[in-house]
Amino acid sequence: LPPPERPRPVASGGPRDPWDGLDVVKLRKDGLAKWNAKSPTDLAMTGMAQKHRQADVRESRAFLKQLVAKRCGDGGKAWPRIVLDCGAGIGRLTSGLLLRLKGVEHVDLLEPAATLRKRAREALADEPRVRRFFASTLEAFAPQAYDLIWVNWVLMYIPNSEIVSFLRRCRLRLPIGGAIAVKDNVEDRSYEEDLDDEDLCVARTVKHFEALFSEAGFKVLFKRKQQEWPTDKGRFPLMMWALVADT
């Protein structure tokens, strides 16, 4: 969930972990309680008007279309077949984005909030390609072999070390030709803010994100900035990355 306004900035000396010195276990518990208390609607999940939600999905589709083209090549077999939606919420992007990829056979959903997971089950009950619903946080999840792992508005809630650990676990099971797609808020100024006390999240710089990706053994195949996005009320920009194993 993109925070509605930027809190007062605090200068830093470079990439750091905003969770340093904080009670991560308590913050995780508090964050899960917040999500379970939310109304299971698209508006509550994103905090965005319909036109911005539509733009979000539209540009994600264009981004994944480019990724599919790079993974398949001319005349290649369908890709991806098996997909994981991380922080899937109520299944907004499972239904509106991932299941619309040509050739997808199965999509698994990872969502720790029981209220949201229940709504996703209901919304996707008639979709035979939806396979499993995992009641786990990202940092506790051991992924299986997925062609594509979609991570949208999730890393902003997780400490640096847990991002790197998760990505390393993904890399160990990533099949040949597999990829991870990350979409998240980014800080476009020269400093990063402290953890947002209300939304319990943070916006990292592009450089910070890419340092974490590299530490986990990934390289950026390509990246794209969300073009149609509100800039009022201190909204953060959105960036998308396509990551592949750096061999």
SS class: alpha/beta
- Give the termini separation: 33 Å
Annotation, overall tally of beta strands: 7
Report the sheet-strand fraction: 15-25%
Radius of gyration (CA) equals: 17 Å
| Order of strands across the main sheet | 3-2-1-4-5-7-6
Spans of at least 5 consecutive residues whose pLDDT stays below 50 are: 1-14
How much helicity do the residues have? 25-40%
> What is the element string, with H for helices and E for strands?
HHHEHEHEEHEHEE
Average pLDDT reading: 89
Largest sheet composition: 7 strands, mixed
| Number of helices, counting only DSSP H or I runs of 4 residues or more | 7
Shape: globular
What's the topology here?
Layout lengths: L23 H14 L4 H5 L3 H23 L9 E5 L5 H5 L9 E5 L3 H10 L6 E5 L13 E5 L7 H14 L5 E7 L20 H10 L2 E8 L12 E8 L2
Parallel strand pairs: 1-2, 1-4, 2-3, 4-5
Antiparallel strand pairs: 5-7, 6-7
Looking at this protein, list some descriptive labels.
single chain; alpha/beta; seven-stranded mixed β-sheet; 7 helices; 17% strand; globular; disordered N terminus
Please explain how this structure is put together:
The chain is an alpha/beta fold and 247 residues long. Helices cover 33% and strands 17% of the residues. The protein is built from 7 helices and 7 strands, in the order H-H-H-E-H-E-H-E-E-H-E-H-E-E. The chain has a 7-stranded mixed beta sheet, with helices on both faces. The longest helix is centred in the first third of the chain and has 23 residues, at 50-72. The protein is globular and about 45 Å long.
